[in-house]
């Protein structure tokens, strides 16, 4: 059995679905961030798979590397925001944080 494009797309769809499920159902901000990371990883799988099977050269790998760098920056900034929210409200549940500070 040979691994083809359909296998990569199936894994990507599974990761994307789990990411959306994590974003929609979780109240904890860290879990929401983990869902966003799953979605970005599913996009990376698509970029790499289409680069391999679509004969696009190294363009898919370059874009995937850019997405990884973007995800690292997003995680660092988002975790700093979550720590600030925890310091202010003493919780990281996104449904309990509904007031903005003046």
State the end-to-end CA separation: 61 Å
Q: What is the β-strand count?
A: 0
Cα shape: elongated
The total tally of domains equals 1
Count of runs of 4 or more consecutive helical residues: 3
Unreliable residue stretches: none
CATH topology: Helix Hairpins
* Structure classification: mainly alpha
Strand content: under 5%
Element string (H = helix, E = strand): HHH
Largest sheet: none
What is the CATH C-level name? Mainly Alpha
Under the CATH scheme, which architecture would be assigned?
Orthogonal Bundle
Q: Rg from C-alpha positions? A: 17 Å
Helix content: over 70%
Mean pLDDT: 90
Please explain how this structure is put together.
Helices cover 75% and strands 0% of the residues. With 102 residues, the chain is an all-alpha fold. The protein has a single domain (5-89), classed as Orthogonal Bundle (Helix Hairpins), CATH 1.10.287. Helix 1 (5-25) runs antiparallel to helix 2 (29-53) and helix 2 packs antiparallel against helix 3. The longest helix is centred in the last third of the chain and has 31 residues, at 59-89. The protein is elongated, with a radius of gyration of 17 Å. The mean pLDDT is 90.
